[in-house]
Amino acid sequence: MKQEQIFIKTEYIRLDALLKSAGATDTGGQAKYAVQNGMVLVNGEVCAMRGKKMRPGDTAEFNGTRYLVAAEEHAAGGAEGRNTPKR
């Protein structure tokens, strides 16, 4: 199974927002559909709550990919360089 880390700056990210921001779905509506129809596992169990709060250490599995939520300060290189205007 493929695994990707999703770095967040906040305390948590909603499950549907996680799927959309990770590129697992193209739209929020698709993410909502996937969650509500039991197509997503959270920490190994089916989760039908699209507003489920995903915190660092939590995992979501969808379409053969596991998404691991991590706090941004643990990202290689930290937050520096992100959103820096191009010169």
From TrEMBL:
What is the residue range of the signal peptide feature?
none
Q: Which domain of life is it from?
A: Bacteria
The UniProt entry, under SUPFAM superfamilies, shows: Alpha-L RNA-binding motif
Report the GO molecular function annotations: RNA binding
Q: State the UniProt keywords alphabetically.
A: RNA-binding
Question: CDD domains from the entry?
Answer: S4 (cd00165)
What is the name of the protein in this document? RNA-binding S4 domain-containing protein
Organism of origin: Hydrogeniiclostridium mannosilyticum
